[in-house]
Specification:
mainly alpha, about 160 residues
Length: about 160
């Protein structure tokens, strides 16, 4: 019986040591898993921070462009108002010129016609220059739209 008792005690001691080793290994592995999870979480946080920084940079750039566009629209609206006033004055001058031509001498009418001809030539030249700039702008806008990255299958 002494052997049997020793065997049982040894078996119990072996079971106790094995259980303690098993538990210690579990704690060690749990720490390893926790460390891996922490590292993964930190990597995700760093990636998200980088993505957020890029998104903020894009947003800041977009807001700057939007603000510049609003200022440019206000400037253009002011220029359009000035142009409208100038057109009104030009109409008044043309109306006055019509009245003067009716009573003017033939030489004065010829001078007026020559001056009007030069003015129309200059207007035509400016119109051609403006049309070329508009065509260039339209081409730039098409290239910009074609080159802009598109994601998803939107409409």
């Amino acid at each position: 019986m002494l052997h049997r008792t020793k065997a049982l005690i040894l078996l119990a001691l072996f079971a106790l040591v094995f259980s303690a080793g098993w538990a210690a290994n579990g704690w060690r592995l749990g720490q390893d898993i926790a460390q891996i999870q922490l590292t993964h979480t930190q990597e995700l946080a760093a990636r998200d921070a980088g993505t957020f920084a890029v998104a903020q940079a894009i947003d800041t750039n977009y807001q700057g462009a939007l603000n510049a566009s609003i200022q440019e629209q206000a400037r253009l609206a002011g220029a359009a108002a000035v142009a409208t006033r100038n057109v009104g004055r030009l109409r008044e001058q043309l109306s006055e010129a019509d009245r003067r031509i009716a009573t003017a001498s033939a030489a004065a009418v010829r001078d007026y016609a020559a001056t009007a001809n030069q003015l129309l030539g200059q207007c035509s030249q400016r119109y051609t220059e403006l049309a070329a700039k508009a065509d260039g702008h339209a081409l730039d806008a098409r290239v910009c739209r074609a080159a802009w990255p598109v994601s998803g299958g939107g409409p």
